[in-house]
Amino acid sequence: MGFIKLVVFGFIGLSVIYLSVSLYSRSVRKERLEDEFDAAHPDGGEPGARDAFVAAGMQDYNASIRPKLIGLVYVVPTIVVGAIIYTVNTQ
Q1: What is the 3-state secondary structure (H, E, C) of the chain?
Q2: What is the share, in percent, of the chain residues with pLDDT greater than 70?
Q3: Angle at CA 20, nearest 5°, toward 17 and 24?
Q4: What is the extent of the structural domain holding 36?
Q5: How far apart are CA 8 and CA 2, in angstroms?
Q6: What is the number of domains present in the chain?
Q7: Helix axes 2-40, 72-90, angle to 10 degrees
Q8: What pLDDT is stored for residue 1 in this prediction?
Q9: 16 closest CA partner among 77, 66, 63
Q10: pTM of this prediction?
Q11: 35 and 64 in contact (C-beta within 8 Å)?
């Protein structure tokens, strides 16, 4: 029963961490794209051009490896906890 609690609460905790890191990473990338557009177009550019630029940049971000690496939030702690449980039980 203790193992099931560990799995359930561990998954919930890792999900909260994953969502937090994912939202933070996306917001930082979006802000960087907005700053890049503002630096390239000090006059403001055409109406809607900034939104299109940011949307295209976010599509590129979604296709990059960074969002996939954030998924390691689930993998690394699971492997570490599994290794610790294995080590403790085999001694």
Answers
A1: CHHHHHHHHHHHHHHHHHHHHHHHHHHHHHHHHHHHHHHHCCCCCCCCHHHHHHHHHHHHHHHCCHHHHHCHHHHHHHHHHHHHHHHHHHC
A2: 100
A3: 140
A4: 2-90
A5: 10
A6: 1
A7: 150
A8: 86
A9: 77
A10: 0.82
A11: no
**CA of 16: how far to CAs of 2, 6, 10, 13, in Å?**
21, 15, 10, 5
Q: What's the first-to-final CA gap in the chain, in angstroms?
A: 22
Across residues 16-44, what is the average pLDDT? 94
**Token reading at 21:** 């890191």
Distances (CA, A) of 75 to 26, 68, 69, 80: 21, 11, 10, 9
Q: For residue 68, what are its two tokens?
A: 């996939």
